[in-house]
Amino acid sequence: MSSLISSFRIALQTFTASSSSLQVLRTIPNSSVIPPPKTLYVLDSSFNPPTVAHLRLAASALNSTDSNSSSKRLLLLLAIQNADKAPKPASFEDRLVMMTLFAEDLLRSLPGKSAKDCRIAVDIAITKHPYFIDKSTAITASGIYQSEPFKSGEGPIEQVHLVGFDTFVRLLNSKYYPPSHTLTPLQDMFEHHRLRVTYRGDDEWGDREEQDAYLQDLKDGKRDHEGGRKEWADKIQMVEGKKAGESVVSSTKVRKAAQAGDGDSLKELCTESVANYILQEKLYTEQDAA
């Protein structure tokens, strides 16, 4: 594991000093036979740490009926310059290791037929962009997932961004789009790409009806004055998150469990390999971890 940490540390230093804005550091499984996908699923997070909530987002998309291409690709994307969050308490290299372990656990958790027949691959990547639309643009501009139709002028590969309802609300917050502070900059993203939004089950974001109403407001034209477009609603899919009886999971809960030395809770909140890594490396044990 120390060699993996070291390789990520060197990669981060090289990337920071480069002019690149996005770089794939690792692909799981490491295979050159997986063809470029027609649709790219993007899970963009601070991964501080990865949790079973991230697992639900990714597995739900990869197992969905609208994910029926012969090759499926998931991009786990970490911003090393985040608009709202400082790089603590876990270092970026620790997070990249956990993302790698998470990806391996994710692939093992998928139904055998899905993983075998659809040839799923997971990319671990970093970006210098803190804002959502800039990340989406960087993915397209990188050419990493450039398909033959795109080379022929038929448009970029479709990105499906996997987000929780809280992230969806932030995406439609005009404060993130200076200097005009309107939603107009989102037009290009919604023209080519989609959102798959998972309902939040905690009280802070309201019940399912209230979350549906937020999307309905966009569809009804109530965000027109901010530059929001009614047709964007057709590119946004609301999906179930946790199943009945499952507890609400957050990275904050994981960090508190780690700080308390509660290994049992960690293994409920994270995938097995990630939980073991947190315990092994004694991550999130400092007073500011929560």
Produce the secondary structure layout.
Layout: H1 2-17, E1 22-28, E2 39-44, H2 52-62, E3 73-79, H3 92-109, H4 112-118, E4 121-127, H5 132-142, H6 148-151, E5 158-164, H7 165-171, H8 187-192, E6 194-198, H9 208-219, E7 236-239, H10 251-259, H11 263-269, H12 272-281
Parallel strand pairs: 2-3, 2-5, 3-4, 5-6, 6-7
Antiparallel strand pairs: 1-4
Helix pairs in contact: 1-3, 3-12, 10-11, 11-12
Write out key terms for the chains shown.
globular; seven-stranded mixed beta sheet; 12 helices
Structural account:
This protein has 290 residues and is of the alpha/beta class. 41% of the residues lie in helices and 15% in strands. The chain has helices spanning 2-17, 52-62, 92-109, 112-118, 132-142, 148-151, 165-171, 187-192, 208-219, 251-259, 263-269, 272-281; strands spanning 22-28, 39-44, 73-79, 121-127, 158-164, 194-198, 236-239. The protein has a seven-stranded mixed β-sheet with strand order 1-4-3-2-5-6-7. Strand 2 (39-44), helix 2 and strand 3 form a beta-alpha-beta unit. The two termini are 25 Å apart.
